Hints:
By secondary structure, the chain is mainly alpha-helical. It has three helices and no strands. The chain has helices spanning 3-42, 46-83, 101-115. Helix 1 runs antiparallel to helix 2. The chain is elongated, with a radius of gyration of 22 Å. Mean pLDDT is 83; it is low at 89-94.
Amino acid sequence: MDKVFVVKRVAERLWATEDAIDAAMARNAQLMNDVIDARAELKIPHQVVDQAVSKIAEATSLMAQARKAMMESHDALHEAKLRIGVRTKMDSIHNPWQLAREDVVEARNRRSGEAG
Length: 116
């Protein structure tokens, strides 16, 4: 398989992982809101849910750390991409591993030519 396509697959998995972490963080924030609203609705003391609120906040912090680590992996993967000889144009700064459309088309054409 062409290196360009392998790099693209890894990049897409990285972005999907970042999106999943973002989604988990959003769900966690909703959970925090639901716990706080439930406490108020049920008119129970803060102390009853304090430990749960603290653990949810801790989970949010850990998810933020995981998100940061995933974002930092972009640099390491960019370096790896260069070390294996894949030098593609960057399509955007937001997605530094994203391959320019021309690179993908060129790689497909090369692969088709080799198969023929």
